[in-house]
Amino acid sequence: MKKQIKKWTLRLTVSGLLITILLLLIILKPVLTYAGKTTHSNYSVFHHQPLDPTLLSHLDNATEHLKTSEFYNPNLHLDICLNDGSSYPDLMKTLRGPAFAWGFYNKVILQGTTNVPENIVELHGYRWNLTQLLTHEMTHCLQFDYLGLRKSNPIAAIPDWKWEGYAEYISRQNPNQKNLSKNIDRLIATDETLWEVKFEDGTISPREYYNYWTLVQYCMDIKKMSYLQILDDTTSEQLVRNQMMHWYYQRN
Questions:
Q1: pLDDT of 4-57, one tens digit each?
Q2: Are 230 and 154 in contact (CB under 8 A)?
Q3: How do strand 78-81 and strand 101-104 relate by DSSP bridges?
Q4: How far apart (Å, rounded) are the C-alpha atoms in residues 94 and 242?
Q5: Is 243 exposed, middle or buried (0-12, 13-18, 19+ CB in 10 A)?
Q6: CATH classification of 35-150 is 3.40.30.160, yes or no?
Q7: Nearest CA to 184 among 141, 235, 218?
Q8: DSSP 73
Q9: What is d(CA 66, CA 80) in angstroms, rounded to the nearest whole number?
Q10: Every domain range in the chain assigned CATH 3.40.30.160
């Protein structure tokens, strides 16, 4: 009986190991689940349907946003995985949960419904600007590339306001998003019970991320801190918020 238990334990262990290896292989090699691949600049775009060439211009615009990051690496190659019929986004949804998109390692996986000509990604009735969403998730790839695995989230447990706020800061570069005072105006004018903060074009930022973004914008634009200085700084999120609002009310 003991020999039988050991045999079954070994079989289950081996099976589990093989499944884990297979999942890792699929995650790291999205080409296995897509019908097409298009290379553009430093990007490999994986798609199941014919690619709308407009997406390439959105990637170029996202690149210009990324260049404003102190972590920007012109040699970093990124995989962009579209949600257009491949099982890959569904696999990531199962592993990490639903989201507009996920960015990790050197991969950006879109999970919402993408309308490339209108430059939006839609999920549960909410619309996120596609170029800014790509930039947000690619910024996470820059963070991982620069900081390394141990010093990146989730392992490093960097506070969300610093991790997600920086991705929002780099991505939110439309002319109507540059002014911190006006960004705070928009936040204050938004019903606190709403999940999202809406921009003039009808796209949104999750309210939590919007809050994080204003904190990072305050640190970088007003206090003139670098992102590395923000990471090293021990000031609490609440104290930074108090300082920001003190600055805001002094100006208004």
A1: 555 555 555 545 444 445 445 556 678 788 999 999 999 999 999 999 999 999
A2: no
A3: unpaired
A4: 38
A5: middle
A6: yes
A7: 218
A8: -
A9: 15
A10: 35-150
